[in-house]
Specification:
Blueprint (H helix, E strand, L loop, with lengths): L2 E5 L3 H13 L3 E5 L2 H10 L4 E5 L7 H11 L4 E7 L3 H9 L4 E5 L3 H36 L7 H13 L6 E4 L6 H10 L8 E5 L5 H9 E2 L11 E2 L1 H4 L4 E5 L6 H13 L1 E2 L8 E2 L3 E6 L3 H6 L5 H7 L2 E4 L10 H16 L5 E2 L1 H9 L5 H15 L4 E2 L6 H5 L18 H19 L4 H7 L4 H11 L3
Parallel strand pairs: 1-2, 1-3, 3-4, 4-5, 6-13, 6-14, 7-10, 10-13, 15-16
Antiparallel strand pairs: 8-9, 11-12
Helix pairs in contact: 2-3, 5-7, 13-15, 17-18
Length: 457
């Protein structure tokens, strides 16, 4: 149901085109001049505009320029009197799709419009496919990194359940890779050539979430100026990730349950039942079972979404993957920034491996991105890590480098350290002062001086 706007100052022409296009099944609006047309363009999504070039006030060319600016996806077709093809050519240069000279016949205009809209649909699909292809390459095919035993077991599980139609619940702390795994499931399933759609249920207010999921008809609520497909329809034949399902409001839970049971949706403001075939994947960083016990999540919905459960372990439970992942991100970000960084300094590696990673893989990814941006040498140095990774690594109270909160006397501390080292050196050297001094890189003179001063023997 594409939307077309007819702009002509001649009423008979407007009516003729409107009636004809409506018969073809398009939704048509009409404007009597360029100014009125601009107002309409501002308020709704219009797929195609067919406008007379010669109109009083805002003429067709000005309108065309305006549309290119505010609604670049809208196709514009100009109507021109036979005598003014020059302006028509100007219109083409300004981005009009085509022009029709008066008088025209109905078939001519019908076919031009059909072709133009078909081209637009193809283009949109291509944009979508290209985006998904990039994501496929970047996010999945060579990019789930990890050799940890738990992760390998998880890959096996994905391979088993991907080809089925089972509803999957993915549990894991934030940043563990839930979306990545959901995509992996989709792209390993027979649905891979259809769309993978995802929405974060916690990020949108309820009414918006509902209209996004189910779509709406024009006039369903204030602001619904055109019909819009819901995401369930977009994902038809494909997979749909409902992210942060635990955040869904009780009334949305009821609506989702209905979709899962009946596989039928209805657009807001509409009565027509639309059958959808979608594989549902949900994810959560909360304990859904507990939400059920606390009556915050419907038990019947829980059983519907929890048919197959995948739990992604937090990064701290698979420390052997930390450096693998760090190197993976390092190669991504050095490529992106064009920097020549060979790897991580040994100390940096030690810090990365012993940190607790509350933000999991996403946090590690951010830490590496930041470090790459800051690094000026060809190794990632420890001081490029955020302070909190450092701070965790501050010396403990029994270390000689520990600084107590109440402060200390550094000079005295250094004297003590010197005393201790001199005593050890003497012991090692069997009491021979010359050799002990050499062990500490001191001159015999100053060694003797300090022996006297400290009363060492
Ligand atoms: N095993 C992995 N290998 C490579 N990259 C990973 C891996 N796990 C996660 N990532 C990357 O870490 C980032 C976070 O992953 P993702 O968005 O899938 O996590 P999430 O669990 O959905 O996070 P959130 O809870 O924040 O939504 C992404 O950039 C993803 O590509
Ligand atoms: Mg996510």
């Amino acid at each position: 149901m594409e939307r077309i706007m007819v702009v002509d100052d001649e009423k008979s022409m407007r009516d003729f085109l409107s009636i004809m296009l409506e018969k073809e099944g398009y939704t048509v609006s009409a404007a009597k001049d360029g100014t009125e047309a601009k107002g309409l363009i501002d308020g709704e999504l219009i797929d195609l505009v067919i406008a007379d070039i010669k109109m009083p006030e805002t003429n067709g060319i000005e309108l065309l320029e305006y549309i290119r600016q505010v609604s670049p996806e809208t196709i514009v077709i100009m109507i021109t009197a036979y005598a003014s093809t020059e302006t028509a050519i100007q219109a083409l240069k300004l981005g009009a799709y085509d022009y029709i000279t008066k008088p025209f016949n109905v078939d001519e205009i019908r076919i031009i419009i059909e072709k133009a809209l078909e081209k637009k649909r193809l283009k949109e699909e291509n944009i979508y496919l290209k985006k998904e292809l990039q994501l496929r390459e970047r996010q999945y095919f060579d990019s789930i990194v990890g050799k940890n035993k738990k992760m390998v077991a998880l890959y096996r599980l994905i391979e088993q359940i991907a080809p089925t139609n089972t509803t999957v619940l993915i549990c894991g702390e934030s940043g563990t890779g839930k979306e990545l795994i959901a995509r992996a499931i989709h792209y390993h399933s027979p649905r891979r050539d259809k769309q993978f759609v995802s929405i974060n249920c916690g990020a949108l207010p309820e009414t918006l979430l509902e209209s996004e999921l189910f779509g709406y008809l024009k006039g369903a609520f204030t602001g619904a100026t055109s019909n819009k497909k819901g995401l369930f329809e977009v994902a038809n034949g494909g997979s749909f990730l409902l992210d942060e399902i635990g955040e869904m409001s009780p009334s949305m839970q009821v609506k989702l349950l209905r979709v899962l049971q009946d596989k039928i949706i209805r657009r807001l403001g509409g009565l027509q039942e639309i059958k959808v075939d979608v594989r549902i994947i949900t994810s959560t960083n909360q304990d859904l079972q507990r939400l059920v016990e606390e009556k915050k999540f419907r038990e019947d919905l829980f059983y519907r979404v929890n048919v197959m459960q995948i739990r992604i372990p937090p990064l701290r439970e698979r420390r052997d993957d930390i450096l693998l992942l760090a190197n993976h991100f390092l190669s991504i970000f050095t490529k992106e920034t064009g920097k020549n960084i060979q790897g991580f300094h040994e100390q940096t590696k030690a810090y990365l491996e012993s940190y607790d990673w509350p933000g999991n893989v996403r946090e590690l990814e951010n830490v590496v991105e930041r470090a790459v941006a800051l690094e000026t040498t060809n190794l990632i140095m420890p001081e490029r890590l955020p302070e909190k990774i450092y701070r965790d690594k501050m010396p403990s109270p029994d270390s000689p480098f520990y600084l107590p909160d109440e402060g200390m006397k550094l000079e005295e501390h250094i004297v003590n350290i010197r005393k201790k080292f001199m005593a050890s050196a003497l012991e090692k050297a069997g009491g021979m002062q010359k050799r002990a001094a050499a062990l500490l890189g001191m001159t015999f003179r100053s060694f003797r001086y300090f022996i006297k001063k400290y009363g060492l023997r």
